[in-house]
Amino acid sequence: MTRLFSRLSAFVLCLLCAACRDDLLLDKLDQQQANETLAALQQRNIAARKEQHGKSGYSIVVPPDDFVAAVDTLSALGLPPRPRVEIAQAFPGDAMVASPTAERARLLSMIEQRLEQTIQSIDLVERASVHLSYALDEPAGRRTPSIHIAALVVHEAGADEPALIAKLKRFLKNAVAHAHYDDISITMFASAPRQFATPTRVEHVDVSAPPVLEMSLGGAALLGGIAVIAHWISSRRSSLRVWWSARRARAGTGPSEASEPT
Questions:
Q1: DSSP states of 2-51 as a string?
Q2: What is the C-alpha separation between 37 and 74, in angstroms, rounded?
Q3: Which is more confident, 223 or 41?
Q4: How large is the average pLDDT for residues 76-94?
C-alpha cells in the first residue's frame, strides 16, 4: 500500500508541476529589451515574468493561457526593440592603433548618449534619440565646421510641442560646441495612449481564491482520494486472504496443495 501510494502521489505531483509551468516567450534579451517587453505585457494584464540566465541574458515567460495574447501584443507594439547600435562598438578603445577618426567617432557617440539621457529626464518626454552629423576628417583650414543635430523625441499626449521644441533647441545649442540654431532639427511624435487591458481576450477572474490556493486545494483533494482508493485496495486484499485461509481450512488442504492468491 505504501509503495502504491508513493507512486500515485509522485504522478499527481508531476501533473501539478506541469500545469504550473510557464511557456517561454522570448530569450537571449538584454536588460533594456527585457524590461520594456515586461512592462508592456504587465500593463496589459498579462502575467509575464523575467528570468536571468547569466551571460545568456534574460528571458520572458508567460502562463500558457496568456501566450497567444502576449504574442499578439508583441506583434502590435514591435517588441522586443532591436539592440542599440553603438558607434563605440565599431571603434573599440582597446584597438592596437587608434586613428583620429575613430577617436572622434567614439567621442561624439558618447556625447549623443549623454544628450539622449538628459532629454529623457525632461518632463513629458518618454524617449529620445539624438544624432550628430559631423565630418569624418579634420578640416584642412582653420575654420571649424558646424555640427548638425537631429533629434527625435516621443512625448506624452497633450504636451505643448512648440514650447517643447524651443526648449530643446536652446538646450542642444548650448550643450554642443559649434552648433547653430538653424542647424538643429527636432521631430516630435506623440505616444499612443497606454492600454492597461488585453484587447483580444477577456477572461473571468475568480477573486474568491487565488489560483495557487485553488490548485493546492485541488491537489490535496486528489491525494486524499488516492489514499482512500489505496486503503480500499489494501482492505480488499486482506479480506481475500482471510477468505482463502478459511476455505483451505474447510477443504483440509495445506500450503503445498494450494497456493494463496496474490
A1: HHHHHHHHHHHHHHHHHHHPPEEEEEEE-HHHHHHHHHHHHHTT---EEE
A2: 8
A3: 41
A4: 70
Q: In this structure, is the dihedral angle defined by the CA atoms of residues 229, 214, 216 and 18, taken in order, positive or negative?
A: positive
C-alpha cell at 94: 582597446
DSSP string, 185-246: EEEEEEPPPP--S-SS------TTS-HHHHHHHHHHHHHHHHHHHHHHHHHHHHHHHHHHHH
pTM above 0.70, yes or no: no
CA dist 21 and 62 (Å) reads 9
Among 224, 132, 237, 236, residue whose Cα is nearest residue 177: 132
Tell me the average pLDDT across 55-72: 93
pLDDT at residue 29 is higher than 60? yes
* CATH code of the domain made up of 99-136+145-190: 3.30.300.30
pLDDT of 6 higher than 70: no
All 3 cell numbers of residue 33?
529589451
Rounded CA gap, 257 and 49, in Å? 68
Say whether domain 2-77 belongs to CATH 1.10.274.10.
no
Look up residue 64 and give its three cell numbers.
500558457
Q: Of 53, 77, 49, whose CA–CA distance to 63 is shortest?
A: 49
Average pLDDT over residues 131-160: 80
